[in-house]
Amino acid sequence: MAVQIKRSSVASTLSLTPLIDVVFLLLIFFLVTSEFEDEERRLDIVLPSATSAVPMTAKPREVVVDIDAEGTVYIGGKPTSIDLLQSLLESAVANNPTNQTVVIRADREATFQPVVNVMDVCNRAGISDYSVTTQEGPGS
């Protein structure tokens, strides 16, 4: 006697409950195993001293320098001279000597000379981590 297997419509639908359970388990796993910054500094230890160590006096922050089509340099939306830019960058390096970054945003119609001037000021201020931003995609 042959056995007939009936296919029901319930078996053909996909149950999302096990998938949701797995996602929640992964979320709990990553939350439990991640290390938090505050927990790393709870230990009462005395750090070694170094003569060349310089403490950070401000939170690391990138400086954004904008250059419009006429070649005017802006910081924070305000026009800035090259001399003032250098003093601002030097004070930023004094607050964050190891990893101060500068982002240079130049208009596509601007000549290259103001960009080179800002790069030169970055080098004189001791900032080697600067970048010129571009727009993704082909130029039009």
From TrEMBL:
Highest taxon listed in the record's lineage: Bacteria
UniProt KW Chaperone keyword: no
Keywords from the named record: Cell membrane, Membrane, Protein transport, Transmembrane, Transmembrane helix, Transport
UniProt KW Flavoprotein keyword: no
GO biological process: protein transport
Annotated transmembrane regions: 12-32
Main location: membrane
Localization of this protein: Cell membrane
GO CC terms in record: plasma membrane
Pfam families assigned to the protein according to its UniProt record, in alphabetical order: ExbD
Matches recorded under InterPro entries: ExbD
Membrane topology: Single-pass membrane protein; Single-pass type II membrane protein
GO MF: transmembrane transporter activity
The family this protein is said to belong to: Belongs to the ExbD/TolR family.
Name of the protein described by the UniProt record: Biopolymer transport protein ExbD
Organism per entry: Rubripirellula reticaptiva
The gene coding this protein: exbD
